[in-house]
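For reproducibility, we list the full input for the pyridoxal-5'-phosphate complex.
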Amino acid sequence: MARINENYLNLMESYLFSDIAKRVHAFCKQHPEQEVIRMGIGDVTLPLVPRVTEAMHRAVDEMGSKDTFRGYGPEQGYDFLREAIVSYYDRIGVGLTAGEVFVSDGAKSDVGNITDLFGRENTVLIPDPVYPVYVDTNLMNGRKIVYLDANEQNGFLPMPGDEQADIIYLCSPNNPTGAVYTREQLKVWVDYAIRRHAVILFDAAYEAFITDDRLPRSIYEIEGAKRCAIEFCSLSKTAGFTGTRCGYTVVPMELVLTVSDGQEITLNKLWNRRQTTKFNGVPYIIQRGAEAVFSEEGQKQIRENIAYYRANAKTIGNTLTKLGIPFTGGVNSPYIWMKCPNGMGSWEFFDFLLENIAVVGTPGAGFGRNGEGYFRLTSFGSIDTTEEAMTRFFNLLK
Ligand SMILES: *Cc1c(COP(=O)(O)O)cnc(C)c1O
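The corresponding predicted structure, in tokenized form, follows.
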């Protein structure tokens, strides 16, 4: 008799985005004349930059020619891309070797798959509110989860207390709150992890949105982090690769765990074993596109797109400031996490905006218990619609 992994029965059905879609659909049916503006999406809207598509076109031609065709590539990614990523880290003073960089089809897969390396008996520490992937992938393996409150009191940047955690998820700049840890705060986390022989899983999917040079773009900017942290990065939000799919994960050689018989195991070797067994690499064409992101011209072009989104974030932030509504994010992050005005609940505020001004956001309650009473707006829309939405928003709430 085949048996399912019953841990899957512990997953909570996620109704967030289907609930939103249902309510928006009902509203559109009732008010066909209204133009609905969507500010809830976590997807980018600007196309790939020219430098990237040119590189991909060239790679397509190579694949169509007998002399330059390529079949299976290295599971860990081609050296040309791994080297480009190493140079990208170089500019912030983080020295890595190509062997520490694993190219992937995106951060979501790696963040989920990394759980393969850890025993079921680990206790996992996860901030709340949170990107739901951290929670669900650990529930699938039947691990115990301890939640750490991110709230107004700690500026949505929780610090370690006396939790007995073995694996710690941190996301900075954060989705959904837009909050960013300082170097000093990350140092406290790194020291905590080293003391406990714990591992930090650091999600840096939004590092490219950081403008304040005092803020760390990588956890490896913190002394000791190579001994306790794995970092996940993605070209999805940075370079518009949400549909193209490419990311990378850094597993430093210094990250070593001791097993029950006293043997020391390098996590880099373990992840390499995992990837070579279960993954066959990212398409050559995509990796050439990704390489172009790290070229001088590519960086210039993607930075222009990020600046475009940043202008939207500024429009949203300025509107909230004028209205005296407290929020985090929007400066070093594409997300704005606002407190619902007049003590409204997340869903109550969602309906209020939809009914009155046809603007859609994401109810904070969908990201965890501490999200109730909060609301997430994103800057990934067009400048025109963002400005229009914020004009309506201001007139409604002034
Ligand atoms: C969007 C996002 C990612 C990136 O996922 P991809 O699979 O690379 O598209 C990772 N982490 C967080 C928190 C995100 O919001």
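The mean pLDDT is 96. Residues 296-323 form the longest helix (28 residues). Both points were considered when choosing residues for closer inspection.
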